[in-house]
Design goal:
Number of helices of chain B: 19
CATH architecture of chain A: Orthogonal Bundle
Oligomer: heterodimer
Pfam families (chain B): ABC_tran
InterPro entries (chain B): AAA+_ATPase, ABC_carbohydrate_import_ATPase, ABC_transporter-like_ATP-bd, ABC_transporter-like_CS, P-loop_NTPase
CATH class of the largest domain in chain B: Alpha Beta
Low-confidence stretches of chain A: 1-13, 403-438
GO cellular component, one term (chain B): plasma membrane
Number of domains of chain B: 3
Keywords (chain B): ATP-binding, Cell membrane, Membrane, Nucleotide-binding, Repeat, Translocase, Transport
CATH superfamily of the largest domain in chain B: P-loop containing nucleotide triphosphate hydrolases
Membrane topology (chain B): Peripheral membrane protein
Largest sheet of chain A: none
Number of strands of chain A: 0
Distance between the termini of chain B: 39 Å
Helix content of chain B: 25-40%
Shape of chain B: globular
Number of strands of chain B: 20
Chain lengths: 438, 526
């Protein structure tokens, strides 16, 4: 067609990817709008599904099922007891153990929850910033590894005075994550590379990088061939906040501060205004004079920095020694934390605490009742699945659609969007479980 | 075939889009459905076409009640629809487009192309359509694409044809051809339901006019009604169709575009060495059918699109190499063509949208942190001045109507000191009241001494606003003419005819709409 026409621009190569990105934007925006009610109901549904699995895997319950028609009451009583024990153990392991031998052990669970939550919160905040800016940062894992590597190396290879050393190590972790996120950010900004693909690949690179580093003597500084580094010096460790056997460290203070700072950044600063604008509508942002490329790069640099901070806090506060599995499944759990927290700072903080609690509670639940710790993974996954598909939750509880403007007008499109969100969630989950299978 | 609607009601949630609509279209009648944007015209059409099922009331064809579960039923019953945005596949030929979905076959799975071609040829011959059966859709001008849509409907034996805003994308000359086609179809006994908000056309074409407002029928009219009467009926109050303005008092030249060329990402020339200059205190309207380079022109001025060559100078300053932000801060006020994608951020509050391109400037920020109290206060003051109807400035802008959203955009761009105002389709999709307001605001801005560059595809708007008119065709400026140039001349220029020749041609041949205007002018003093 010789006549210039705007329609033709969609036919250019890469148009399909562009469109997919547009739909990703839509899905991310939808996620941000899910109400608190949906979040709570999702947690409730997850507990119900978890309960079914606990019962199904419990041998006592199965036994009562054998003579269910003779004495059904046995089944119900046993089921009740098993569930009560399992979930109370989960709670006692996560918050307060009233059965513990000493007062110190009674309050230990909540501190363990916080210890678990520190890296989840910090990395979750990093992911949440990207979400709200319309980007899907799958690279938390790699950024955490880099943060731990930088922080750890500074921690055990340098000799510095008390305060300065730990500060430098933490900042080093921040820098490491920022560099790793920044690679994806700059590539996206300069070349339009899809951040999902780039960050996933950078995760692999980070894993291989740390595996290689741990085989280098100048790096591990242990004199042994084990792929594990020397412990960080005490001057570089995040100091404990409580005396005795408690592991709670200053990382929780960093997490609280970071939560506040991220809130200020997103809600009060001009930079955050740019981030939110490109997240909601990059075209309008560009027309309004916002440098979309620069903001895109900064989103992933800052997000990566927060993930790096998570890695550093995890290493300097809990692990002390760098290993290949230092990041565990943190990077992927952080994605679910950010989703559950609806990408808001306070929400992410609370979601991080919840997931931290599920982890510490799951251990006690398995030890005391025999319900598998994997139930926790099921709970986490179901929660996120439901959060990602609000219409599903609304259907389960017969809630009206919140969106009054949602008409019959575009039913196909709506369905498409929802199935996409669901799909995205199940993909996340696949990643998570994969990551968890250390 | 006779189409009758009895008390058709359609609700979406608590919103009643159609409220007990009664309507009857006699065989061989051209019936115009006139209403503003958002009056419920499209909902009604979709109900007739089976896309929606009415909550109450019924649809009768030849006095028999019908119940459509989808467009397929409607098509079988003899209803054809030509949508405002054509449902055609660009790479298909005319024949393929027409038979799509109703392919004649010979044997299992074998398309009978000969039969399909014959059918298209028959219909074309019957109504004197001039289409090339093998031409690709994408190579056809818009008017011809529309004819393909009409042939498509007729090939399915449509006895009732629904045309949704058929003239929105046509030049006056193409509109003229469409009117001729409609009259032929009428002769052949086809009933036509013709949806529009353009008053001139209604008067020139329709046998009967039904006016709807806020989902309900508010009156019927005949083509003899004056435009003012129709407009008042449509809007519900007295309206003036033209905006009062003093003659321009242009001062010194302050904005110049020279040999500006813009390429598409694939390297196609979208804007071809365009030059124009503007003086302070004048409105230059850029007229043209959609997609003739107007978008590229405005976007290159703002810097969203890069210019391949040429220069843009504002108050002597070359804008080359400046970022969008620097250009905005140099004094360009910009109203983008597509409000919802480029103009506002739907999820942001009214306040945030109000400062969208000033968020990092004083007094709204100190460069790092934003000052919400100042933002809110200014947003409150300016939205009141621009008469934005809203709850509070903290509501998301998506809660506002299109007209009010556009007022927020205008408030944003006009409440600071600007040295050039650029607006693309400033009234697209707005109701008459908002259009009046936008036009008045633009004229006020002009009277403050700002050069105003207004891009519009609506000739009515161009004629109403312009001190001078630049007509664009295929990326070039065909000519720059005075604001009071005759409609028919402009129409020919829109199709690429140079100004001088257009004047000669227009004098020789008058369009149907032009004729109707003249008759109206003669009647008016009486």
């Amino acid at each position: 067609m010789s006549q210039p026409s705007p329609e033709n621009s969609t036919a250019e190569p890469g148009g399909a990817l562009k469109e997919a990105e547009g739909r990703l934007h839509l899905a991310l925006r939808e996620l941000g709008r899910t109400s608190w009610v949906i979040t709570l109901l999702s947690i409730f549904v997850a507990l119900v599904i978890g309960a079914v699995l606990i019962l199904a895997t419990n041998s006592d319950v199965r036994e009562t099922l054998g003579y269910f028609f003779a004495r059904p009451s046995d089944f119900f009583v046993t089921s009740f007891e098993v569930l009560r024990d399992a979930y109370s153990a989960l709670f006692r392991g996560a918050v307060y153990d009233w059965n513990a031998a000493s007062p110190e052990r009674s309050i230990r669970p909540i501190t363990e929850t916080m210890v678990n939550a520190v890296p989840l919160i910090l990395a979750g905040l990093g992911i949440a910033i990207a979400f709200r800016s319309g980007m899907l940062n799958i690279g938390g894992q790699g950024q955490i590894i880099l943060g731990a590597t930088f922080g750890g190396f500074i921690g055990y290879s340098l000799q510095l005075p008390m305060g300065a050393h730990v500060t430098l190590a933490v900042l080093g972790g921040l820098l490491g994550g920022a560099i790793w996120g920044g690679i994806a950010g700059v590539l996206k900004a300069k070349t339009g590379a899809n951040e999902v693909i780039v960050t996933i690949m950078l995760n692999n690179i980070a894993l291989l990088l740390i595996a290689w580093l741990l085989r280098q003597q100048w790096f591990v500084q242990t004199g042994s061939t084990q792929p594990i580094s020397a412990p960080v010096h005490e001057s570089a460790q995040l100091f404990g906040l409580l005396p005795g056997s408690f592991r709670l460290h200053a990382g929780i203070l960093i997490a609280v501060a970071a939560t506040f700072l991220v809130w200020w950044l997103m809600e009060r600063s001009t930079l955050g205004f740019e981030f939110r604008a490109i997240g909601e509508n990059p075209d309008a942002a560009r027309t309004a004079g916002i440098n979309v490329a620069k903001a895109t790069a900064l989103v992933l640099i800052i997000g990566g920095g927060l993930c790096g901070l998570a890695g550093a806090a995890h290493l300097l506060g809990t692990e002390y020694r760098l290993t290949g599995g230092v990041a565990g499944s943190l990077g992927f759990d952080a994605i679910t934390v950010a989703l559950l927290g609806r990408s808001k700072p306070l929400g992410t903080f609370l979601a991080g605490l919840l997931f931290g609690g599920l982890q510490s509670g799951g251990v006690l639940m398995q030890a005391q009742t025999g319900a598998s710790v994997d139930i926790v993974l099921v709970l986490q996954s179901v929660i996120v699945l439901l959060i990602a598909a609000p219409p599903l939750v609304r259907t389960i509880f017969f809630l009206p659609s919140t969106d009054g403007t949602e008409k019959k007008k575009n039913p196909r499109r709506r369905r498409l969007r929802d199935s996409e969100a669901e799909q995205a969630a199940s993909e996340d989950k696949a990643e998570t479980t994969q990551g968890a299978g250390r | 075939m006779k189409l009758e609607l009895q008390g058709v009601t359609k609700r979406f949630g608590t919103f009643t889009a159609n409220d007990r609509i009664d309507l009857s279209v006699e065989p061989g009648e051209i019936h115009a459905l006139l209403g503003e944007n958002g009056a419920g015209k499209s909902t009604l059409m979709n109900t007739i076409y089976g896309l929606y099922s009415p909550d109450e009331g019924q649809i009768l064809l030849d006095d028999q009640p019908v119940d459509f579960t989808g467009p397929g039923d409607a098509v079988r019953a003899g209803i054809g629809m030509v949508h405002q945005h054509f449902m055609l596949i660009p790479v298909f030929s005319v024949t393929e487009s027409v038979m799509l979905g109703y392919e004649p076959t010979k044997g299992p799975g074998m398309i009978d192309f000969a039969e399909a071609r014959q059918r298209v040829r028959d219909i074309s011959a019957q109504f004197g359509f001039d289409v090339d059966l093998d031409a690709k859709i994408e190579d056809l001008p818009v008017g011809a694409q529309q004819r393909v849509e009409i042939i498509k409907a007729l090939s399915r034996n449509a006895k009732i044809l629904i045309l949704d805003e058929p003239t929105a994308v046509l030049t006056p000359q193409e509109t003229d051809e469409l009117i001729a086609i409609m009259r032929q179809l009428k002769e052949a006994g086809t009933s036509i339901l013709f949806i529009t908000h353009k008053l001139r056309e209604v008067r020139a074409i329709a046998d009967k006019i039904t006016v709807i407002r806020r989902g309900a029928v508010v009156g019927e009219a005949t083509p003899e009604s004056t435009e003012t009467e129709l407009a008042s009926l449509m809007v519900g109050r007295e309206v003036s169709l033209t905006t009062e303005k003093e003659p321009a008092t242009p001062e010194d030249t302050s904005f110049e575009v020279e040999d500006l060329t813009v390429l598409s990402p694939t390297g196609k020339v979208m804007l071809d060495e365009v030059s124009l200059s503007m003086r302070r205190g004048e409105i230059l309207c850029v007229a043209g059918v959609d997609g003739n380079g107007q978008t590229e022109l405005t976007e290159a001025i703002l810097g969203v699109q890069e210019a391949a060559s040429g220069s843009i100078r504002l108050d002597g300053q070359d804008l080359k190499g400046l970022s969008v932000k620097q250009r905005i801060n140099a004094g360009i006020g910009f109203v983008p063509e597509d409000r919802s994608t480029d103009g506002v951020i739907a999820g942001f509050s009214i306040t945030e949208n109000f400062v969208l391109d000033q968020y990092d400037q004083r007094p709204y920020s100190n460069g790092v942190a934003m000052r919400h109290d100042v933002m809110r206060a200014d947003a409150q003051e300016q939205t009141a001045r621009f008469d934005v109807r809203m709850g509070t400035v903290d509501d998301p802008i998506s809660t506002l109507s299109g007209g009010n959203q556009q007022k927020v955009v205008l408030a944003r761009e006009m409440s600071r000191n600007i040295r050039l105002f650029v607006a693309s389709q400033p009234t697209r999709g707005l109701d008459v009241g908002s259009i009046e307001f936008v036009h008045r605001s633009i004229i006020e801005e002009r009277d403050k001494g700002t050069p105003c560059l207004i891009v519009s595809t609506e000739l009515d708007e161009v004629i109403n606003l312009a001190d001078r008119i630049a007509v664009m065709y295929r990326g070039r400026i065909v000519g720059i003419v005075d604001g009071d140039t005759d409609r028919d001349v402009l129409g020919l220029m829109l199709a690429g005819v140079p100004a001088d020749e257009a004047k000669i041609q227009a004098a020789q041949h008058q369009t149907a709409l032009g004729e109707a205007d003249e008759i109206a002018d003669e009647e008016a003093p009486a």
